[in-house]
Amino acid sequence: MADNRQHNQNDYDDIKALAAKHPEIAEAIEFGVDINMLIDNLKRPVAERIRRLQNALDTLNKLQNAKKL
Question: For position 69, what pLDDT does the model report?
Fold first, then answer.
């Protein structure tokens, strides 16, 4: 568990450093954008990101179709 907390602290420090260098990142964080989620997603292979997006779109379509019933 200590490793996970250290990993999270390192991620937090990295994001703080990015926000300090790039005001648009700081602005996005203030606006409510989850930068951690974006970074984690970008660590995934492209094929995995596409698969996850397709799953989300399929779910959205199912929900929209169910609403029409």
Answer: 73
Rounded distance between C-alpha atoms, residue 38 and residue 69, angstroms: 35
Token pair in block for residue 62: 């199912």
pLDDT tens per residue across span 6-31: 557 777 788 888 889 999 999 999 99
- Compute the distance between CA of residue 2 and CA of residue 50 in angstroms, rounded to an integer: 33
- Mean model confidence pLDDT for the chain: 87
Q: What pLDDT shows up at residue 5?
A: 57
* Structure tokens that stand for 65 in this block: 């179709």
Nearest to 35 by CA among 13, 15, 58, 8: 15
Domain count, the chain: 1
Q: Which domain holds residue 42?
A: 2-68
Distance, CA of 55 to CA of 47 (rounded, Å): 12
